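User: Quick one: structure for sequence A, then sequence B.

Assistant: Sequence A:
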Amino acid sequence: MAKYSVHQQPVETLLSWIKAGEIAIPEIQRPFVWKAAKVRDLIDSLYQGYPVGYIITWRNPDVKLKNGELSAGKKVLIDGQQRITALTAAIVGRRVLNKNYKEINIRISFNPITEKFDVLNKAYENSPEWINNINPIINDEISITKAIREYLKVNPDVNENLIEERIENLKRIKNKQVGIIELDHSLDIDTVTDIFIRINQKGVVLSNADFVMSKIASDETHGGNKMRKLVDYFCRLIVDKDFNKHIIDNDKEFASSEYYKSLKWMATGSDDLYVPEYIDVLRASYTYKFSRGKFSDLVALLSGRNFETRTYEDTIAENSYKMLSEGLVDFVNQTNYQRFIMLVKSAGLISQKLISSKNSLNFSYALYLKLRNQGMPESEIQHYVKRWLVMSLLISRYSGSSESMIDEDIKQINEKGIELYLNQMEQNHLGKGFWEFALVSQLESSSINNNAYNVYLAAQCYENAPAFLSKSMKISSLIEQRGDIHHLFPKKYLSKNGKTPKQYNQVANFVYTEQATNIKVGMMPPKDYISKVLDQIKGNVLDISTIDSGKMLENNLWVNDIPSVLYTASDLDYDNFLIERRKLMASKIKAYYEKL
């Protein structure tokens, strides 16, 4: 069986297919990442007759309708979106989004004398030798005779025949051929991905989420194209509030839809903790609503796949789109979303930098929506979701092959219920060995992107702990303000005593402290700066620290899990100090987890 067919089509035909919707190009809402110079090079290659690579489409399967008829599937664009966007920008004149989500025109200029293309700039705009914008000529907005006549009028000394020939060549760009690889509808996602990776040697990763986005963007029958906008617009409003005006002015149909009503609150809302991208919105909505984790299953379901008979039926597709729509609307719902963010923050995870795994957040939100949908009391939901989130961070649950883990977890929760499955996970992963050995050794690290260390900081925020040597400044405030991380044994002091960066930058040597304290401690060994703090308490001169009693100092060290050896410590005590502090940090994390 042929898995694909390869054919050539003129640029003009390709663009007419896109205008007519025969190739479903995912709404070009995601930023165009090519630099304008790359668009120029593409146009130059077409002009010179050079190959410009292939566009890959995958035909949707034919679907059996309720009346028994077969409906032919559309072609979905799998690879070549940037090239097609470049062609529509340069030739059709369509505006594109840059990486800052601003709409821009990319105008390509042409110099018929030198046969050079370039991105339009002021110098070319003022030069008679350059045609400012190629698109009206290629696009038939201006007749070729008029274009030649106008050019010769401002360049009277040039060779008339040469100019005529070159402007005609420019116009012929739309007849130049582009290669199209059409993949057969019977191929599964994994095969399509494999083909994509083999053709695309640039190391571009095509995720199954991209298939889902292409799939829903190409669907008008069940409103998938509007769902695609719901996902894109929501993600965009999180980072660009001005985009709301764009929706109202330029997408009136969407602005009057129920989907817009669901998401418009984000135009004035904020999220600097979760900040989901389209893949996260899809992941959480799908996991919650379908109790599945593999995007390849979602693509099959949206295609109408009957897993038992191996046929494609419109009733299955219709139901799957309906479920996905409900999942997406629940995801963007203001009450759900804001309550979930508050829940995460109330667990001490107050900043994005404390959460190393986006999929832990995605799964926890899916779980939150699922338990809410089941009508579980809010206090119980909070308990289970907080525990699940922190447990998944501690054991790096979704760091490897996350899809299969997500699939397994949601199916088990569906089958056994959250209480039983969470107990099972805790018994399997969070036993005595984990708390006393595995967690302690995870803290033996010089990386602050360490899950155990970040959960430790969350525990400190949860307890509202004060910063090191500070009376009232909280660690949570310093984390939010990007405050100073201080070395308990100053790095210059340790470096002078022969320690390497890997040794002195251990996370067990770190505390959050106020900048003034950090500067005043400088490179003093701990026993010196602690004795200075004690002297200042006696003399009632608060210079290094705002702590004003010996008892308060003792308590400050205790809440920051700092062994009392610090009072007398020199570099010789450093290694034992680290061992001791890691144990204290691990037991803080355990106590915190048990309170959630």
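Sequence B:
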Amino acid sequence: MRKLVYRRKELIIVMLSACLPAAIIGIILYVLGTQQIEKEAQKAHQNQVAYGIERINENLNHLESIMAQWSFNLNLGSSFADLDVYQDFRGTRSIFQSLTWIKSSDPLIGDVTLYLDKQHMLIKENSGINVIQSSDDLQLYHTLASYQRDVYWSNQLKSNNGMAPFSLIVRIPGGLVETEAALIIEINAKKLNALISELDAEGTGSTVFLQQDGNIISLGQSSIERPTDLDKILMKSIAGSKTEVTSSIQTWNGEAYSLSVGQMKRIGNLWTIASATPLDQMTEPVQRLSRVIMITGCLGILLALLLSWYSYRRMYNPVHRFFQQLFPGRSSGGHNEFEYIADEWKHLSRESQILQERIDQHLPSLRENFMLQLLQGKLSFLSEGEMTDRVEQLGWEVNGREHAILALQIHGIYRSEGKFSPGDEQLVTFAAMNIVKEITKNKGIDGLIVNFHDLTLGVLVRLRNDMAEENQQSSLFHLAEELAHTLNSLLKVEVTVCVGARTNELRKLSLCFDDARNALAYRKHGETQQILDVEDMIPGGHDAIVYPFEEEAAILKALRSGHEDELMALLDHFFTLLKAEASTELDVRQALMQLCGNLQNTILLSGYNPLQLNDGVDMWEQLAAIREPEAVVRWIKQYIVAPYIHRLHLTQDMQLKRLVENVLTTIHSSYAKDISLEYCADLHGTYSKKLSLGFKQVTGQTFIDYLTQYRLTRAKQLLLDTDEKINDIAMQVGYQPPYFNRLFKKIEGMTPGQFRDKAGQV
């Protein structure tokens, strides 16, 4: 595994700085926040107990108040001492109705009993009339009825099922009058327990309701017969408490509890209510939030580690590939690859600077050679746009410019006062070119000098389009005169300068130069300095011309390119235009003869002999014997165009086959590298479109299909013959592992691993 070099420390620092704050905040909340929450929770618990005591107290006060009212409302028109429950039907029914109303007047009331002291009877709302038989019970009830308080609480009666151990006693009548009866109100234990259990709604703690002597009134949700261990501990801890309200934190069995104790005064009694609630229950939301924050921080760190590692690998892979491209087979050795790349970049920058300097040095000669071929007409196969691109690449701006040609020729070097001798033609031409360059440079003329090495120079001058035609022509003649005068003065030779035509099309420069060069033949013999104007030497006529020059140029271009179908179509179009514009058949025949001559001239310039293409047949004799213009066109197609195209295609096929074979050799030797169609085209001196079409023609496959098939074939051999990792095999055949896996599965229908396993099972 490659060593983590690419900003490893910085990545770790970023990850920790991004995730640790959340974890630290969680710890602070957990440590400091929990303590504060415990205090607030203890205070809230104390308030909750105080509120609960107040509510219970209000319920009991309400009960006492109602019972006091009922003690005055229970009268039968005579005293209870004179009541005959068996004979006085109305009175007895009234008692039962009142007992029913009393029981329904408060939800805490579980059962209501009326004790008649004189009759020794108990009248219950739900069980009727009962005569007390036991003397002990009679003594107990007589004692309750004779108590010195009119309304009081007593625990002397045995509680029935579902009733609390305390009962409310109401003497009837009250005051100093001798008691005749007593109302005994039993409290519904379930209702009372519900009130008490509100202090521990979750049921995770303990709540006790105790008498002054420590006896249990209620344990909330627990049964008083079966108190829990926590209930026992709580009762023990508050035994003997004399404070009305107190709060503290106690620890039992390793768990912290918030303990709150309160007291309430009842008639003749002092009752105590205590509640213990686990602190964890009250601080659980904060603890949970703190844990979530800490866990989230930890997960964030882990996720950041994974994402950073993944991002690092994704970012580092291009760096590693770039490093391997710069230093094939070299390992970084644990050092930062960027140091190597920076050093190599400096080295490449120095080499680039050196190469740029060399290019700058050779650019004038490159430009001169290109313009030499352009003026000689050797680049006529290029379109105007292609020529423009080539010229601009050589550092010459074309747009918005008009071009003019000066053809300069030197004569009489053998009469140059002994300065030159026979064989010095190139030396003289070179000296003249340097002088012309210096003159144009000093005059600030935007021009280019082309040396034809035969005592002839071509001066290509660029003029601004916004200059008037008279000014353009005047500046050209002034330049021609200065060139002729200076060369004659310095070299002592005869100089002739012909001012050619102007054009804004690069394709027409060769024609303009040919005209200017041909016009040099009209110089006067013996004159040392001559200035010629091509328009004067080769004036333009005013006769009507019915010859399609543009169509002829397209025909000659198609002939040089070997596009047979296009050429045949252009010939037909040329003939159609010719018939439409010519007035006589003679004009048509003469134009076709002219076209035939130009076609043969183009074939000669291409390096083919028209005589050999037709087995030595005298073509002009055959052509002269044809009278019909349509037959002339067919003859041109059959005896001039077809043989040349056939011979050209044979030559091109051989060249194309040789080119494709060289490209195949490159693929077989460099398939592991990042090669492309453009790379191979540049390497073998051609252009992409030609190579693409030729490759398809020769191999029957496109370049990328052949390269992919060859790489996968090599990969399958490595999968079967070696134990190398699939990722390493992918790199060896020129693919990145993810793309290799997808491509392999798409073409083979299975992954590389499945291919290897399947081959191993055979």
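The chain has three domains: 35-281, 360-537, 546-700. The domain at 35-281 is CATH 3.30.450.20 (Beta-Lactamase).

User: Thanks, that's what I needed.
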